[in-house]
Specification:
Structural class: mainly beta
Helix content: under 10%
Largest sheet: 6 strands, mixed
Number of strands: 30
Distance between the termini: 89 Å
Shape: rod-shaped
Radius of gyration: 38 Å
Number of helices: 1
Strand content: over 45%
Length: 418
């Protein structure tokens, strides 16, 4: 909070003003005088007899902590009170003479009424009203629900707000902001608040579903939600106690490998065709902002020759996954164990042709890179078809070497057995 004038300094600097007369009548809220902030007002009580109260209306241009300080002259004992314009009493000072100061914290920008009240005696007083305002700019209101945000921010864009101030009895206890996350990853919502605030940070889906919450804290606070897809999410700054201003921002982690092209969640949607030793990358296990998890990625592999196909994948440590190989018709051929880091699976004795590799999410989330490879057999293949006597297509002479390959299955399961 920042205050414009030191109260004691102001009274000491302007002693000559203490004896100016206030403008009557101002003995009720309805007849109150207007008192600009940070200006000395002067009045008297007890003279004439029956003048026991002076009321002042103060227009607050901003949220903050209001201080009303009266300097009661010799012979006058008084009290300072703060009211809403409705007449609701907010606070009262002790009774005394000299400088009597009263502070009401966490007021919203509105009209407030100050009452300078005679307790006994008679004499003059001077009144100074100041407002200690939050250090940072206010947020746009109303933004009190996840579905009624007014500001959409990008990654690492700082924004500010106020929270905990009461406007005519209604406390601004929640501020909501929409975050446009640019990529898959873990979203962190962090804030730094004035020391007078205790607050919680929460993350929501746009439909209002709560996803994650921080502990209640002062000054520094943050909450992280893991395994989110790119999209819009809502952050909430929620007051636990006190009031003040804050600055906040969102960020998203960057995964080690680029994403795959979506959708590729089924064999029919497989959209990337790979050659031998061609590296592919992807990301898996992230939920979109309605809760659907990307749990499957499919890739086509053009197998160049007969042999054993191996798929090798290196996944991020936080990602547990399985590698599977399929025929194009969806028949499962082989699976790896569930694990993280580097894994592989080998399918034996297949012919050249098209096969499908699948990365299957088990838990966690992250990115991966991988590739397909096929063994090279010792001898060259024979010329097919030659599975029957009628199909014999090679005529040999004495001592002419011939080679062939046998026992490999096509991608529909037919084995070259002859």
């Amino acid at each position: 909070m920042k205050s414009a004038i030191s109260l004691l300094s102001a009274f000491l600097l302007f002693p000559a003003l203490f004896f100016a007369q206030d403008v009557e009548p101002n003995s009720t809220i309805g007849t109150a005088s207007v008192a600009p902030l940070s200006s000395l007002f002067n009045g008297s009580l007890g003279t004439p007899v029956g003048d026991n109260d002076d009321y002042y209306i103060v227009n607050l241009p901003n949220n903050g902590n209001l201080t009303a300080a009266a300097n009661f002259g010799a012979g006058l004992i008084g009290i300072v009170r703060i009211y809403r314009t409705s007449g609701t009493l907010l606070s009262s000072s002790s009774t005394g003479t000299g400088i009597i100061s009263l502070t009401e914290n966490c007021l919203g920008s509105a009209q407030i009424v100050i009452r300078v009240e005679r307790s006994s005696g008679a004499g003059t007083y001077s009144l100074l009203v100041t407002l200690a305002q939050p250090a940072l700019p206010i947020d746009a209101e109303p933004n009190n629900t996840p579905t009624a945000t007014l500001l959409t921010v990008g990654e690492n864009v700082a924004f500010t707000g106020h929270i905990g101030h009461s406007n005519n009895g209604n406390i601004d206890s929640e501020d909501h902001f929409t975050y446009s996350s640019p990529r898959n990853g873990n979203v962190t919502f962090s804030a730094v608040a004035d020391p007078g605030i205790t607050y919680i940070l929460r993350l929501y889906r746009p439909n209002g579903t709560l996803l994650a919450s921080s502990a209640s804290a002062t000054v520094n606070n943050s909450v992280t939600l893991t395994c989110l897809q790119a999209g819009t999410y809502v952050g909430r700054v929620e007051r636990s106690g006190g009031c003040g201003s804050y600055t906040a921002s969102f960020s998203t982690t960057t995964l080690s490998q680029p994403n795959d092209t979506e959708p590729n969640n089924t064999i029919a949607e497989s959209n990337t065709t790979l050659l031998e030793n061609q590296v592919f990358t992807g990301q898996i296990g992230h939920a979109n902002n309605v809760g659907a998890v990307d749990g499957l990625d499919h890739f086509n592999y053009t197998n160049p020759r007969n042999g054993n196909i191996t798929v090798t994948v290196n996944g991020d440590p936080a990602l547990a996954y399985i590698i599977r190989l399929y025929r194009p018709n969806g028949t499962l051929l082989v699976s790896s164990a569930s694990g993280s880091g580097v894994q592989s699976v080998t399918l034996f004795c297949v012919q050249a042709g098209s096969f499908i590799g699948r990365i299957d999410h088990v838990s966690g989330c992250g990115s991966y890179s991988g590739s397909f490879s096929t063994t090279t057999l010792l001898n060259n293949n024979d010329t097919e078809p030659n599975n029957t006597l009628a199909e014999i297509n090679t005529t040999l002479i004495e001592n002419q070497v011939f080679t062939g390959q046998i026992g490999h299955a096509t991608n529909i399961g037919a084995i070259d057995g002859l």
